[in-house]
Amino acid sequence: MQLHTLKKVTIVTEDSLKNELKRKICELGASGFTCREVQGYGSRGARSDAFASNVEFEVICPEAVAHAILTFVSHHYFEQYACIAWLSDVQVVRGARYAEPVGTTP
Fold first, then answer.
1. Could you tell me the maximum CA-CA distance found in the chain, to the nearest angstrom?
2. CATH code assigned at 73
3. Least enclosed by CB within 10 Å: which of 32, 64, 92, 95?
4. What average pLDDT does the segment 57-75 reach?
5. Taking the model in full, what pTM does it have?
């Protein structure tokens, strides 16, 4: 078994940004992502009901793609939306699958 070192971008933000962020993550070069509804509490208060839910994105990608995604999110969302993002190092099996964009967006 061979492990490949890549980056994991995690973004938690408002559900209203879900469709735009799905498209943009792929446009910026990611081969895919995982998205799920989440609940939490932070500096902008609790967001856990049907009218103010949050989504969490996880993206496994090369470092350059990770930086592009984080740059986009920080420039477009941080000032106006409840949003947090972070970067982690990960080691994955079948790492080559994450290196090439899939060519289509959801």
1. 45
2. 3.30.70.120
3. 64
4. 97
5. 0.84
